[in-house]
Design goal:
The N and C termini lie far apart (61 Å). Helix 5 runs antiparallel to helix 6, helix 6 runs antiparallel to helix 7 and helix 9 crosses helix 10. The chain has eleven helices and four strands, in the order βααβαβααβαααααα. It has a four-stranded parallel sheet with strand order 2-1-3-4, with helices on both faces.
Length: 247
Amino acid sequence: MSDRPLSPVRWLAYYRVSTDRQGSSGLGLDAQRAKVEAMASERGAVIAAEFVEVESGRKNDRPQLAAALAQARAEKAVIAVAKIDRLARDAGFVLKLANEAEKNVMGGFVFCDLPDIDATTSAGRMVLTMMASVAEFEARRISERTKEALAEAKARGVRLGGYREGAAERASERKQKAIADAEGLRGVLEPMVRAGLSYRAMADALAGVGKLSSTGRPLAPAQIGRILQRLGLSGKLLSSDQAWVAA
């Protein structure tokens, strides 16, 4: 038996930001890089190359992603992504990539927000597709509901944009935005409520697809409770969680 140490697994890091400003400032990029580097260190992998994309996650034709896939095929390397929504916000496209990785005997994909998912198994692909569907749904519904809420506010005479003296108008706009955001998550949260998940479990699931608090952390149980109250779902939750609503 040889005494030579085994070569470390080669990872190709793929980072994506949505705007030129984020790309040039590093906003969001540094956080993605830190997550991938931390997991690579934990698993004894070496980051052989980095691919940085400035493009919407809804667009599948991306040159840097294509370059990463080509190198991964050639080297049988793993593509590491900080969060599944950084790869794409299109569930069908994510599943296509996972199937392609298996077909081309690539190293596959590693998602820092889903560290235990093995996309080479049927169960892993199912979970991966489900989480990608949540990311896609969230992006579309929040956008739709926000536009609807702002349109309704404008129709009622609420001034949108610019300087507003009245606190009432500002409070109304914040309320409408909160309601719109909550409605955007209804289709995701209702199945979790029916399944009897706790606030904490719901917060962790949402964090896995990029729904975080303004501080960049998973939503607190109290925040989940307020969202569910806006949706009229709080009465259906586990009684052990009710204390969080009053917190």
